[in-house]
Write a structure and sequence with these properties.
359 residues, alpha/beta, Aspartate Aminotransferase, domain 2, Aspartate Aminotransferase, domain 1, 7-stranded mixed beta sheet, 4-stranded antiparallel beta sheet, 13 strands
């Protein structure tokens, strides 16, 4: 007989309680909507809900997701100003402020907090301050940063904050969430182009769920993914969010120190202050194929070649969720040493010292 899970339906009260726990994780009192799909769902929904023909958007591009946002913004009919910086660095609040002064019509800003694909992270607090002073809405992709670095949604003034469960939270990719500030709701409600009766509609959730008292779910939730999200929140609560963040910082510091001690590879993001705590990207020497190195590693290790044009010259070491451990970092460094003909001993020692300094 085919095995199956005989689970009782997830109640509206349980769903609402999980939303409240996500809000606490995001340090927000704003409405939180848990969306039943991967985080691209609420990211696109946020853009299409708040942007319309006649909008002017500042799209900050520090990696591939910023490029995706630009395409969505243009398809909404917005005038888009791209602020692009090299993928091995971070944007600064001063750069954002200068772009806003140059383009005073900007009313929407899109930003990625941490780019797992390129290994960089952006200083959201300072950027959010200049965006708020300008009067624009700020949408933040915090999928790779939530539970890995501080995320103070209300204190920083983030209007639309999107997260997913599959990175530092250590959970499923099939469930995500977005917090929506009062300012954002005002903009969305006034937008005639905002999706309605659509899987991308935030307004449908607001009217049929949030404003209706959260007593009847609009549709059947993804039961297993919601349970997994709850389990992730349980684990973060048990460990304590500061400890979870510290573990990710330690994993990043240990990986970067170990790679530098190897000598055969180098951090793709050279400045430690710009390095994301969820993944460390590595630059291979000229003529050394990153995909070839990755193919020689144990596939169980969280190491993969970069995407797209970076596949030949970048390796990505993921150290998020359960992989944010010294054992995982050491295993990755030992394998990279073998694959590149380096002595692992100095790398392992450096990683251990760096972990101890941070953790």
């Amino acid at each position: 007989m085919t095995p199956y899970l005989d689970l009782p339906p997830l109640s509206a009260a349980e769903f609402a309680a999980t939303e409240d726990r996500v809000a606490a994780l995001l340090h927000t009192t704003a409405d939180v909507i848990i969306t039943q799909g991967e985080a691209l769902l609420p990211l696109e929904a946020a853009i299409r809900s708040a942007v319309h023909p006649g909008s002017t958007a500042l799209n900050i591009v520090t990696g591939p997701y910023g490029q995706t946002f630009g395409a969505w913004l243009r398809s909404c009919g917005a005038t888009v100003v791209d602020l692009a910086v090299p993928f091995d660095s971070a944007v600064t609040a001063a750069q954002v402020g200068a772009a806003l002064r140059e383009h005073p019509a900007v009313d929407f800003v899109s930003l990625v907090h941490a780019e797992a694909a390129t290994g960089n992270t952006n200083p959201v607090a300072g950027i959010a301050e200049v965006v708020r002073e300008h009067g624009a809405l700020l949408m933040l992709d915090a999928v790779a940063s939530v539970a890995a670095e501080p995320l103070l949604t209300d204190a920083w003034g983030i209007d639309l904050c999107v997260i997913g469960g599959q990175k530092a939270m250590g959970g499923p990719a099939g469930v995500s969430a977005v917090s929506v500030s009062d300012r954002a709701w005002e903009r969305i409600t006034a937008n005639p182009a905002a999706p309605r009766r659509s899987y991308l509609s935030l307004l449908d959730w607001k009217e049929r769920w949030t404003d209706a008292g959260r007593t009847v779910l609009p549709h059947a939730p993804a039961q297993l993914e919601m349970l997994a999200l709850g389990a992730c929140l349980d684990r973060i609560t048990a460990d304590g969010l500061p400890a979870v963040i510290a573990r990710h910082r330690a994993a990043s510091a240990a990986t970067r120190a170990g790679v530098r001690a190897l000598g055969t590879l180098s951090p793709f993001v050279p400045d430690d202050a710009h390095a994301a705590p969820v993944a460390t990207t590595l630059r291979t020497p000229d003529g050394v194929d990153a995909a070839g190195i990755a193919a020689r590693l144990d596939p169980a290790l969280p190491v993969q070649p970069g995407g797209g044009a970076l596949a030949a010259s970048m390796l990505r070491v993921n150290h998020y969720g359960p992989a944010a451990s010294l054992d995982t970092v050491r295993a990755c460094l030992a394998a990279l040493a073998t694959a590149t003909g380096a002595d692992a001993s100095p790398a392992l020692a450096a990683a251990g010292a760096a972990w101890a300094d941070v953790a």
